[in-house]
Amino acid sequence: MRIARYVVGDQIQFGAVELAADGGEHPDSVANLTSDPLAGPVNYTGERHLLSDVRLLAPVIPRSKVVGIGRNYAAHAAELGNVVPDEPLVFLKPNTSVIGPGEAIVRPATTSNLHYEGELAVVIGRICRDVPLDRVAEVIFGYTVANDVTARDLQNSDGQWTRAKGYDTFCPLGPWIVTHLTLDEVGDLEIRTRLDGALVQDSKTSLMVRDVATLVSYVSSFVTLLPGDVILTGTPAGVGPMTPGQHVEVEIDQIGTLDNVVVEDAGADS
Question: What is the pTM of this model?
Answer without folding.
Answer: 0.96
